[in-house]
Amino acid sequence: MIGLISATSAGAAARDRLAAAWPERTRVYEGPVGDAVRAAFAECEQLVCFLATGAVVRLVAPLLGDKASDPGVVCVDEGGRFAVSLVGGHGGGANELAYEVGELLGAEPVVTTATDAVGMPGLDMLGFPVEGDVAGVSRALLDGEPVALEAEVSWPLPPLRVTAEGTYSIRVTDRAARPADREVLLRPPSLVVGVGASRGAPVDEVLELVEGALRDAGLSARSVAELATVDAKAQEPGIVEAAERLGVPLVTYSAEELAAVDVPNPSDAPLAAVGTPSVAEAAALVRGGELLVPKRKSAAAVAMATCAVVRRPARGRLAVVGLGPGARDLLTPRAKAELRRASVLVGLDQYVDQIRDLLRPGTRVLESGLGAEEERARTAVAEARKGQAVALIGSGDAGVYAMASPALAEASDDIDVIGVPGVTAALAAAAVLGAPLGHDHVSISLSDLHTPWEVIERRVRAAAEADIVVTFYNPRSRGRDWQLPKALAILAGHREPTTPVGVVRNASRPDESSRLTTLADLDPATVDMMTVVTVGNTATRRIAGRMVTPRGYRWQAAPNSGSAAGQEGAE
Ligand code: SAH
């Protein structure tokens, strides 16, 4: 819960905007400010105070305990210009919250924690449990001192500015080691514990068995990703509670699925009880991996539980990220976050240039020139298969005439794929032109590099006959100059010469230009590869210099009637 505290009416107005935007996440504290801050500090994970930083410092100072448990505190000034992360930047999530509040109120987030300030992830913000000298190693990273990365388990980490050797080190391990001096241990969620239990098995017996197995094998409980068992045991209290106490999810599989897993120690008892010769080993191994602890039984006189431990294969992470048409503010926040999450970036050199300043120090950039699409797709997938966090970028939306399809055609289900949509050139151009896409529309690429012209022509013809608004991508290059006139001629066979045509070059880029003309008047020589051309349908009109395609004929005929047609079209 986020506690909200304000003193003045301006503060209260901003506070109410937050409360309205996040009704589930926030609680308003009224009354004298001192009491409100103290109550919220005791009851909430985070506070947003619409008060001067000085006032908040004085109020929270006596309440502070330690940074692992204190709430994160963000201050917003009277004018709503700044959202200051004051206390609990990482552990309390105040840095993150300052960004969120800033976004919502249009305030500048102010973050002074060193790692965030220079664009490096805090070691305690990587999403993994950490142990050891977090402050020392973070400082070394910041100061550019050599920090070695030892990955005993390869896992898709965000970029860290690391070297092969150093006085400081970061070790990625699921082993139960203690951190050395000047060392941080990162615990990847690499272990799966399979468990089986007879009805009524006590939670303590299950837990002791699991903890004993991990201890004897020298493994860290903090790397356990999940407990796994058979569907029939999904409600077994001893197993459910053991997962809860370990703080991990319980996943279950059907008996058939488990019966199909090849295990070293099958037995008859579970086969009779739940229909699979192995529960613990099979549930741990069902998604593949290395069996570190074969089935063992609990130590009770009549053993009621079994467990087995598997190290699952690292799954790489491939984010396919659309950068939008060019302007930085048309790059979505999610795309930005994925660019900073990746330790390997793959893309066309000119697109890499567009976002290079956003990358975290230590990001490995694999850029290549025009035409190397297949190679880029293969590289991105190969890096993800090695267990890396990879971002494959494209302009506009990366799935539209771009890298997503060749990459996913290469990929198998051994990596995670995250798609981040982007604003396409067609949408950016439409916004410049007016509302040309108000009714059904298609995009057609006129590049016959990978598609035979007959196919392109058939599609243009179909769009012409179906009276669909068409946006032409890749409309014309030095070597390809007859395709656009040909395509326009096909459309002209079904549309008036006066049909509006919008030409937008470099939409949203500094040298953006646009022209609204007609099918009869368009001069193809003014079109190049930085351009999209949008041709209206038979209902598209030029209105006050803008290109407008009505949402439907009935809609147009009865704009104020409140008729069924009007409602049907309502958003
Ligand atoms: N994935 C991109 C399209 C890549 S194909 C998208 O979703 O938009 C390349 C073609 O897109 C160019 O030849 C041009 O026709 C068009 N294009 C890309 N960016 C553009 C922009 N900012 N303005 C106008 N056209 C653009």
From TrEMBL:
List the GO biological process terms.
Answer: methylation
Question: Which GO molecular function terms does the record list?
Answer: precorrin-3B C17-methyltransferase activity
Where does the record place the Tetrapyrrole methylase domain? 317-522
User: What domain of life?
Assistant: Bacteria
The protein's annotated pathway: Cofactor biosynthesis; adenosylcobalamin biosynthesis
Q: Per the database record, which ranges form the CobE/GbiG C-terminal domain?
A: 191-309
Q: Write down the SUPFAM superfamilies for this protein, in alphabetical order.
A: CbiG N-terminal domain-like (SSF159672), CobE/GbiG C-terminal domain-like (SSF159664), Tetrapyrrole methylase (SSF53790)
Q: Which CDD domains match?
A: Precorrin_3B_C17_MT (cd11646)
Q: Which UniProt keywords apply?
A: Cobalamin biosynthesis, Methyltransferase, S-adenosyl-L-methionine, Transferase
Which top EC class is given?
transferase
Query: Which positions fall inside the Cobalamin synthesis G N-terminal domain?
Result: 36-116
- The reply to whether S-adenosyl-L-methionine figures as a keyword in the UniProt entry is yes
An example Pfam family from this entry, by short name, is CbiG_N
EC number(s): the record gives 2.1.1.131
Instruction: Write the protein's name.
Output: Precorrin-3B C(17)-methyltransferase
Q: Which organism is it from?
A: Streptomyces cellulosae
